[in-house]
Amino acid sequence: MRVRDFFEIDFFLLLSALVLTIVGILFIYSSGMTSSGILVSNEYRRQIAWASAGLALAVVLAIFNYRRIYDLSVYLYLVTLALLMYTLILGWAGHGTRWIRIAGFAIQVSEFAKITTIIFLAWYLDITKRSQKTLLRFVVSCAIVLVPMMMILIQPDLGTSLVFIPILLGMTFLAGVSLKYVFFLGLTISVSGIFLMLPLWQAYIMDNAYPALMLLVNRRFVLAACLILSLIGIISWFGFLRFDKQRFFWICYSAGVFALSLGISFAAQMILRQYQVLRLIVFMNPNIDPRGSGWHIIQSITAIGSGGLYGRGFLQGTQSQFHFLPEQSTDFIFAILSEEWGFMGGVFVFILFLVICLRLIRIMRITTDSFASNIVAGLVSMYAFHFFINVGMTMGVMPITGIPLMFVSYGGSALISAMTGIGLALSIHVRRYQYQR
């Protein structure tokens, strides 16, 4: 990098990420404090070390020419898949996911899988950007994302696996894949979630007031419905090819959405563990199990509400210091922040994330390299999804999924992965006009 290139770094992006990381260290420190003023955890020290390593990595990546990974993207992806397989077989389970030990460090491979999948998908979308086979392009993109996503889901790590969905949607949309295919996937996922929640809602919330909804968990009904909808879809598709009538296409489209949604929701009921099902139930009504699964949400909402406009003051939070909040340095760190810094503290964090996303969108728009644009689209989708799901989870408007608040939550793998994304974006910004689409 030339000296003048240093001043091309997007300092607003880097500074926002750095400030969020410092805020995270402060509240990780606060989470380790007891009501007696005794520090019982040294997590903040490890976070400082990881933050230093992450910041150094971001700067190195800003200097590094991102185009050098273009031809390596498939190898990075395959190595990640190999590590995920190794994690499934020989990794140790803890905190709702699996880890591997390398040189004495515990590494969560799934965090880095998000970055390598973004890079590989960006490469594929770039080399197929002139393809007229948009359906094939979309199907292959889905397969690229689905493989690591399913390997992570089996760990089981539901939260991290869900992050791959907005990455896929954001990148395919930017890459010019037909909107009807992108919308098809988004609609299928949404309907699948509804079909998954409805039986739980009627059984635990409505006290079996709508027994017909239990058909959604009946194996024979789901199989028969999927077969019938599939036949309707196939016949409609042939009708579309034969007569070229749009109504046949949309009948096939709708049948496909409902058939896939029924199948996915039924499969999810088989795959999800009991504690994950309980999280969905208490999301709808935390008071069903106030001392068990609902405890997280109840205490988090209490902490956020007690913070008021300006908060109780740093290190003055009662929910955190009495350790009423489970996983308070990771999943529920935003609740500690809101209790001690109040609504204004939450707004401050929101503004920092907004700056990051807006700067990434700007980089995505001005870069002349479609490979780079695809990478940044994946990054902004990832950061935005983490923020809205984590904050929504602590406020009780999203189910508990174990998704951390990037840059803020405790965790070395998550922080270094987040900083890796920032470093790639900085490198792209520095070279935003050097390569052509």
Structural summary, described in words:
- With 437 residues, the protein is mostly helical.
- Helices cover 70% and strands 3% of the residues.
- Strands 1-2-3 form a three-stranded antiparallel sheet, with helices on one face.
- Helix 2 packs antiparallel against helix 3 (43-63) and helix 5 packs antiparallel against helix 6 (134-153).
- The chain is globular and about 75 Å long.
- The model has no long low-confidence stretch (mean pLDDT 89).
Entry keywords:
437 residues; mainly alpha; three-stranded antiparallel β-sheet
Structural class: mainly alpha
Task: Figure out the total of helices.
Answer: 16
Can you give the helix content as a percent range?
A: 55-70%
Rg (C-alpha, Å): 23 Å
Distance between the termini: 22 Å
The pLDDT mean sits at: 89
Strand order of the largest sheet: 1-2-3
Q: How many strands, which pairing sense, and closed or not: the largest β-sheet?
A: 3 strands, antiparallel
Order of helices and strands: HHHHEEEHHHHHHHHHHHH
Q: Report the β-strand fraction as a percent range.
A: under 5%
Number of β-strand runs: 3
Low-confidence sequence ranges: none
Judging from the principal axes of the Cα atoms, what is the shape?
Answer: globular
Explain the layout of strands and helices.
Elements (H helix, E strand, L loop, with lengths): L2 H4 L4 H21 L11 H21 L9 H18 L1 E3 L2 E6 L2 E3 L1 H19 L6 H20 L4 H17 L4 H27 L13 H25 L2 H26 L2 H11 L10 H12 L11 H4 L11 H34 L3 H26 L16 H19 L7
Antiparallel strand pairs: 1-2, 2-3
Helix pairs in contact: 2-3, 2-14, 2-16, 3-16, 4-5, 4-6, 5-6, 5-7, 5-15, 5-16, 6-7, 7-15, 8-10, 9-10, 12-14, 14-15, 15-16
